[in-house]
Amino acid sequence: MVGWRRHLHRNPEVSFHEEQTARFIRETLESFGGLEISRPTENSVVARLTGGKPGRTLALRADIDALPITEENDFEFASQNPGAMHACGHDGHTAMLLGAAEVLSSMRDELAGEVRFVFQHAEELYPGGAEELVEAGVMDGVDAAVGIHLWSQTPVGKVGVTYGPMMAAPDIFNVTVKGKGGHAAMPHQTVDSIAVGAQVVTNLQHVVARETDPLANVVLSVTRFEAGTTHNVIPGTVEMEGTVRTLDPAVRDRMPGIMERVIKGVTSAHGAGYEFSYDRGYRPVVNDDGLTQEIERAAREVVGEENVEVMPPNMGGEDFSAYGQRVPAAFYLVGAGNESLGITAPHHHPRFTIDEDALEVGLKMHLAVATRMLGKGGGTS
């Protein structure tokens, strides 16, 4: 698994461009024998393992895409593709699922039912690969879907599970403030788009602080603010972009209206105009309670009671949510950080990496979940 992970880390491909990654996965799966392998989309791979007895069907998913980030690590296996990097652990996800496919293939006669290994493209870029795979029928006949995310903020050796809402809906907004440009020495002759835009940013923070329930999980962040060309010109427009993260669908539905009211009020008060757009991203990841309970039991067997943590939701987004719209699904975290080795960089950082000991934990978790669900006539223990 370490070798597979390092090969993938050295050769990252960004969302919707995972041609060589998918080829490597397919060829590796073919070497195991006994798997029915298909390519439901151009850049994804699915392998089906039919057990020796009838039973349920379990889908295990790994995302395979990299991010458009220039790596700053100096590993021997650092990215050789400029501007692309596995900065979120998907190389490890893929390696762990390949390991599970190899081991479970050797256990076919002991399994009751089917394991469907789903190597999914384009998790990092909306509209995402999961929705495409659902539309292609990959979840047809599946009784449960399970996914692992390696987590650098949790120490290696630990497993985190979350009941109910786990990850947020990641929506995107864009705002253009339309003022009147002019000479910086004569601001009274202008409508200063930068000054108005700064107030828009400040007042948007009140949407969370004063317009939503303090107990609701909401994040609103302006992440891009662009204006101007030189020191002595007040620009006519400001463009800004950001994200809204919510767990509650009702709160999510209210956010665009509240935001536009604030933007309209601030701009009109200063004689400026605006354009506003709000695009919905993935749905929230909501874990099935019964399936999560099975994962928690498996984790206590694999890493011990003291290394299992029931975790609160986090406001990251994940298109694993698409599978949960069709079948009972659960997503959980496997610790991959190690402070003593300096493995502390957050996800999506140019120095991100994982403690590769996490691959063994993830493999054992895949095997434990699969054998719990399919090892005894397809029932749970």
Automatic annotation (TrEMBL):
Segments forming domain Peptidase M20 dimerisation: 173-253
Binding annotation for Mn(2+): C88, H90, E124, H149, H348
BP terms from Gene Ontology: diaminopimelate biosynthetic process
Species this chain originates from: Rubrobacter tropicus
Keywords, ordered alphabetically: Hydrolase, Manganese, Metal-binding
Protein name per the record: Amidohydrolase
Cofactor note: The Mn(2+) ion enhances activity.
A Pfam family of this chain: M20_dimer
MF term (GO), any: metal ion binding
Cofactor(s) listed: Mn(2+)
Alphabetical list of InterPro entries matching this protein: Amidohydrolase, Bact_exopeptidase_dim_dom, Peptidase_M20, Peptidase_M20_dimer
Lineage of the organism: Bacteria, Bacillati, Actinomycetota, Rubrobacteria, Rubrobacterales
Domain of life of the native organism: Bacteria
